[in-house]
Amino acid sequence: MDSNKPAKHDITEVVAQESAANPTENGVVMVINHGKVHPPLSVLWTTALYCAEFICASVLSSMYHNTEHVVWMGLTITFMLVPSVLTQLTLTFVHRDLGRDRPLVLFMHLLQMGPIIRCIEALVVYCQAGKNEEPYVTISRKIKLKHGRGFGPAFECEIGHSERKLAIHRNAFKRTAVIQAFLGSTPQLTLQLYATIQEKYVLHTRLALMIISMISIVYGALVCSVLAIQIKYDDYKVRMKPAAYLCMILWRGLEIATRITTLVLFSTTLSAWVVLVGLTNLFIFFFQPWVEFWVRKASLPENIENNFSKLSTTVVLCMVTFLYACINIFCWSAVQLDLADHDLVEKQPRWRRLAIYYTLRFMENVTLVILWYYFKSDFYEYICTPLLVVQLIICYGLAVIFMLIFHQFCHPCRRLFHYNVEDCLRCYCCWKEKQSEAPEINAGGPQEHASPDLINHLTDRETDIVDDIIETA
Q1: DSSP conformation class of 301
Q2: CB count in 10 Å sphere of residue 356
Q3: Could you tell me the residue range of the domain that residue 11 belongs to?
Q4: Rounded CA gap, 30 and 16, in Å?
Q5: Which residues are listed as membrane-spanning (predicted)?
Q6: 440 Cβ partners below 8 Å, 6+ apart?
Q7: Is residue 345 assigned to a domain?
Q8: Using CA atoms, how far apart are residues 81 and 352, in angstroms rounded to an integer?
Q9: Domain presence at residue 34
């Protein structure tokens, strides 16, 4: 703890110092938190991306109308309005506005300006926070992480009304960022890149829309990754370092850019087959959680939302599964759905599934690029196509490398892993060596060597760490 004198309105450190020597019976330190409320920067950023992409898409649609590109105009408007409508429904659903008398807010949502009024509300809450002392509404219990490990007893922090309201706004905008990224920005970027190649020239408005869409997609993928970490390690106070964000940006940016470029190039040569590729990916990832749900013979989760019938719950689960499938078409979703769980997320990480996903995706990208190379049109004669193929393959390989670097060195909870990337690779290499040496050692008969289960030990490892913390407290 810092020995300096705290600020007048921030007594968190003082109370923590006084309570650390005498924790409660359960090893919990009570912390009275009256610190400053963090500004809603994520809300501002998501709103700015939403407005910028909406405006650029509207201007570009008008240009397509003037040049009589009816098909591209219709698709641009579709990819602009569909995620916008879903964004309005998400914000209305999270804030429960249908049961409240708020005609101005509902009218702004009908005008597709819901994120703007929500952003203004969040700024008003932030500006008014701390002026009047307010009672807390809930208590948050977390375990601090030091050098990636659990440190000290758990801390209980009081959360006031203003902080809780801002948390609701942040969570709502995280959902809208993911919806906007993978139901709007991703198909929009794919369409505009395809139009650019077909027209053989770049419009400034189209280029601006492509850049904004790419930023929106990478941000949505970052939100998915951070949410997966926060859900998995909900008992810990997780803080991401700048190096972790930089590594994630490089990982997600290269992965998504390579994937979209591969699909667009393939579509310029084999347009009918790209529809089959997209639908196959969509169906596989859409039905995969449902097949696992039916195999386990599980039942639908209860209390997803009050007053929800079985039909309404099924519709919500189908929407969530559709979003999950759209994410996995272009990049790793970082979360696995468990339709029988109340949180709808499987908290036990599956490294094997991650390895299978990236292996199959790498093979698919290489196959599509090679097919494009052999069936390409005469337009690409002025481009060094072999170099482009090599660049796409290398860029996706770099994305995988940055993903491994993130989990090995930059993951905020990497010390809680029982096995990390290096350990998995070492165990796999040792297992391969034993497999090759087995016939020489045991010439009398073959001997099976089962690969070590690197997944089931993770929960035991975390439980041991938590038990050690409680015992030392």
Answers
A1: P
A2: 11
A3: 1-240
A4: 7
A5: 43-64, 70-94, 207-231, 273-291, 311-335, 355-375, 387-406
A6: none
A7: no
A8: 38
A9: yes
